[in-house]
Amino acid sequence: MYRTHTCGELTLADAGKNVTLSGWVQRVRKLGAMTFIDIRDRYGITQAVADNTVTDDVRECAASLGREYVIQVTGTVRERQSKNAKLATGDIELVVEAIKILNTSATPPFTIEENSDGGDDLRMHYRYLDLRRPPLRDAMILRHKMAFEIRNYMDSRNFLEIETPYMISSTPEGARDFIIPSRLNPGKFYALPQSPQTFKQLLMVAGYDRYFQIVRCFRDEDLRADRQPEFTQVDCEMSFVEREDVLETFEGLIKHMFDKVLGVQLPAKFPRMKWEDAMARYGSDKPDIRFGMEINEVTHLVRNTGFTVMDSAEYVGGICARGCASYTRKQLDQLTEFVKRPQIGAKGLIYARVEEDWTVKSSVDKFLNHYQLRAIIDQCKALPGDLVLIMAGDRRQTLSALCQLRLEMGSRLGLRDPKKFAPLWVVDFPLLEWDDETQRYYAMHHPFTSPKIDEVDLLDTDPGKVHADAYDFVCNGVEIGGGSIRIHDAELQQKMFKTLGFTEEQAELQFGFLMNAFKFGAPPHGGIAFGLDRWCSLFAGADSIRDFIAFPKNNAGRDVMIDSPSTISDEQLKELFIKLVPQE
Ligand code: ASP
Predict the structure, then answer these.
(1) What's the 546 CA to ligand 1 centre distance in angstroms?
(2) What's the whole-model pTM score?
(3) 22 lines ligand 1 (CB under 6 A)
C-alpha cells in the first residue's frame, strides 16, 4: 500500500496514529539535528520531521531528497509545537520512521508554489508541472465541479447526454473550420465541428426532445485575446419550446450552478434587455450591469457649434463618472491615452466637469456655450462633482469606445467587484449583419436561427430589419451563453440560405441533409450553448480562460509542450495525396 492517507487530511484527531503518505517533496529544511520535509499531493501539504530518533539510513535518505522527488513516508502523527494556521494540516506533523524514494526528479524549471517564478512560456512548456501548483489545481477542481453540477441539473430535468461526431463535413457557421484529410477517400476532407449545431437539431428530428452535451468545439479563428482554437461548450437543445420555455429552463440551470458551486443566490428572474437598448445604453451586446454609468447620446445637442469634431460626427455620446470632477490633468491625459490605444482607436476625449456651483469647465469651452454644455451634462444626468466624458465620431466605433471607457472607469471606481454577479438576458438580436466588403448579409448567430415569426415577410423586402428569436446570457459583461429558437421548416430554411447569398446548389451541397431531415416531421425546437471555459473563469473571478483548460494552446494557437502543430513525414503526405506548396 502506497498510502493510508492523503497529504491534505490529517488533523489533531489523528494524533498517535501510524500512517503512510506518498507525494512530492515540496521543501526540505535542516534545523540542527532535525530535517523537516514538506510532502505534497493534490490534496495538500503535510510536514514530516526526521529527528534524532531515526536510523542513519533514514537520516541519509532525508538529506538526499531534492525538490519534486516522489517519496513515501511512514511515521506517527503528533501535535505540532508551532502550528501553521494557513495549512489544513498545520496542527500536526508526521514523526518519520521510514522514507522511501519512489522516484527522483530533475530540478524543476520553476518553483511549484502558489505564485510561480516561471514565465508564461516556461510554464506552458512544462504544463504538467504548472498543474501541480495550487491555483491550477483549484481551477481543475472548479471545472470538475461545474461539469458535475451541470449533469446533475440536466439529468433532473430529463435531458439526455448524447455524443455527436467530431469528424464531420465542412459546414461553415461563422468561423473557419479545421480540416482533416481522409486517407480512405482521397481528395476528400473531414472538418472538426465549430459546434454540434446541426447534429443537435437532427436529434430533435429524431425525437430526443431534451439533449445536452459537454462537448469540444473547434474554430480556426485568428486568435484574439483569451480565445482557444478548441474550447468546451455545454450544448443544449429542446423540442416543443418557445423562447420562454428555454429561458426558464436555463435560468434554472444558471441559478443551480451559482448556488451549488459558489453558494450565491441569484434573483428569481433575470432582467432582459433588447439588443438595440444594450447597444445604445452600453455600447455593447454584453453589457456589464453591475454598475450604471450608462451612455447618453448628445448628438442632437451639439450641432452647429463650430467645432467640426462634433458638428460633423455621426454620433456624439457621453458617460457620467460620479464624483470625478476633481480628476487631475494627469488622470485625464491617462484616460485620453487609454481611448487612443489601437484596440479602441478613438481620436480623442472631451471632458466636462461640473463644479459645486453648477458651472461647467470643459475642454471644449471655446466652442460650446454655457447652455450647450449644460444641456450635455443634463442629458448625462451629471450633478455637481461629476465628470462627463464625451466622444464623437462614427456611431458604431464611438459607442464601442465609450463602452471600453465606461468599463475602465467602472474598474477605476471599484464598481466591478468580481464577487458580485449581475446576470442578464440580451434578446431580440438582429437576424443579419451586412458586410460591406463581401456585399452580403451574414447570420449574426448562425443560419439556423429563426427570425421572429411576425417579421418573416420582411426577409423579402428589408432583411436588415428582421430580428432573430435569439438570446444571449451575459454576466458581468461576459457572454457566457447564446442560443435561439430554430427554423424547423425546410422552406423557411431555404429562404434563409437564399438571403445569405447561397445558391440553391450551394445550400443543397452544404445543408441538404438538414433540409431533407426537416421534411420528415421536424418538431419546433430551440436551444442554447454555454462556454464552459469562460463560465469557469467567471466563477473564479479570473480574466483568462486558459487556466481552466488542462492543456491549452498559447496565443499563437500552439501547444508548446507537445510542439503542435508540427510537420508530418513525406510518407504521411503521400498517403493522403497531399502536396505542400511553398509559402509565398
Ligand atoms: N451552436 C451555437 C453556438 O455555438 C449555440 C446555439 O445556438 O445553441 O454559438
Answers:
(1) 21
(2) 0.94
(3) no
CA distances from 148 to 30, 105, 262, 530 (A): 44, 34, 14, 15
Q: What is the total residue count of the chain?
A: 584
Q: How far, in Å, from the CA of 197 to the mean position of ligand 1?
A: 6
Q: How confident is the model at residue 45, as a pLDDT?
A: 97
Helix (H) / strand (E) element for 272: namely strand 272-274
Q: Are 416 and 291 in contact (CB under 8 A)?
A: yes
Which of the listed residues 164, 446, 535 should we mutate to test ligand 1's pocket, taking the one with most ligand atoms within 8 A of CB?
446
Whole-angstrom distance, CA of residue 524 vs CA of residue 238: 9
Check if 482 has its Cβ closer than 6 Å to any atom of ligand 1.
yes
Average pLDDT on 143-167 reads: 98
Give per-residue pLDDT as tens, 523-552. Answer: 999 999 999 999 999 999 998 999 999 999
For the Cβ of 23 lying below 6 angstroms from any atom of ligand 1, the answer is no
Distance CA 38, CA 25 (A): 6
Nearest CA to ligand 1 atom 8: 528
The predicted structure's pLDDT at residue 325: 96
197, 233, 246: which to mutate for ligand 1, most atoms within 8 A of CB? 197
Specify the ligand 1 atom closest to the Cα of 235.
8
pLDDT one-digit tens code per residue, 438-448:
889 999 999 99
Residues 316-331, mean pLDDT to the nearest whole number: 96
| Whole-angstrom distance, CA of residue 414 vs CA of residue 410 | 6
493 CB within 6 A, ligand 1: no
The mean pLDDT of 83-98, rounded to a whole number, is 96
Ligand 1 pocket residue status of 246, Cβ below 6 Å:
no
At 221 the pLDDT is: 87
pLDDT of residue 305: 84
Which residue in this structure is represented by grid cell 508551532? 82
Phi/psi at 201 (nearest 5 deg)?
-70, -35
Other Cβ atoms within 10 Å of 176 Cβ, number? 15
Ligand 1 atom nearest 197 alpha carbon: 1
Do 137 and 190 touch, CB atoms closer than 8 A?
no
Q: For every residue of 380-430, which 3-state class applies, written as one string?
A: CCCCCCCEEEEEEECHHHHHHHHHHHHHHHHHHCCCCCCCCCCEEEEECCE
- Cell 447597444 found at: 279
Supply the residue whose CA is at minimum distance from atom 1 of ligand 1. Answer: 197
Instruction: Report CA(528)–ligand 1 centroid distance (Å).
Output: 6
pLDDT digits (tens, 9 = 90+) for 396-414: 999 999 999 999 999 999 9
Q: What are phi and psi of 511, to 5 degrees?
A: -125, 15
The pLDDT-based confidence of 173 (bands split at 50, 70, 90) is low
Is residue 7 lining ligand 1, measured as CB closer than 6 Å? no
Q: Which of 223-227, 393-397, 515-519 has the lowest mean pLDDT?
A: 223-227
Confidence of residue 172 (pLDDT cuts 50, 70, 90): low
Q: Which ligand 1 atom minimizes the distance to the CA of 194? A: 4
